[in-house]
Amino acid sequence: MKLLHKCQELLAAEKMPTLALALLTYEALVVMWKELARVIPKLSHYIHLGIAKIMEYISKGRQSCIYALAMSEQTYFTIFLD
Question: Does the pTM of the predicted model rise above 0.70?
Answer without folding.
Answer: no
